[in-house]
Specification:
Blueprint (H helix, E strand, L loop, with lengths): L2 H10 L4 H24 L4 E5 H7 L4 H11 L17 E5 L2 H10 L3 H4 L10 H15 L28
Antiparallel strand pairs: 1-2
Length: 165
């Protein structure tokens, strides 16, 4: 069983709601610690053996795989998550703008409000990314053809007498 499958089994097959809450509280604390270190040290590339990287962050390899799974959409180059094992060598090149945007998308306030962002993205850059995110949430209704307007099919008839029947 590959590491991604182990991570998904671990995170999805919890016995009770209480154990699920406990699991996610613990994992999200570990994840926030890793992100805090990345931002404070301005680490743009995470390289090494998965098991060594997990140990350096005091995480299990499965939890570190969860981190990799989460950050995979914010990388400059795609990686094959299915192929990653504990003894795999990885190189994760982080795109910080994508990372910040994706944190907004998943509403991870505990991550996009970390103080380390101040040294990586300016206030203006973060505001622009927040605007871009909000624009994706805005629903724009198309102008509908009124009953007495000419039909858009080009027949010359009123909409109510043509396609609006």
């Amino acid at each position: 069983m590959n590491l991604l499958t182990k991570w998904r089994n671990l995170s999805e097959n919890l016995e009770s709601q209480e154990s699920e809450v406990k699991f996610w509280e613990e994992y999200l604390k570990e994840e926030a610690t890793v992100y805090d270190e990345l931002l404070n040290k301005k680490i743009e590339v995470i390289e090494g053996k998965v098991s060594d990287l997990a140990a350096s962050h005091n995480m299990s390899v499965e939890h570190f795989m969860g981190f990799i799974d989460g950050i995979s959409e914010s990388l400059k180059e795609d990686i094959d998550l299915e192929a990653i094992e504990a003894d795999s060598e990885i190189s994760l090149k982080i795109d910080f703008e994508k990372l910040y945007y994706n944190m907004l998308v998943v509403e991870a306030e505990w991550l996009y409000t970390l103080p380390g962002w101040e040294d990586i993205l300016s206030v203006e850059e973060r505001k622009e990314l927040e605007k871009a995110y909000r624009r994706t949430k805005t629903v724009v209704k198309e102008k509908q053809t009124g009953r007495n307007e000419p039909c858009p099919c080009g027949s010359g008839k009123k909409f109510k007498k043509c396609c609006g029947k």
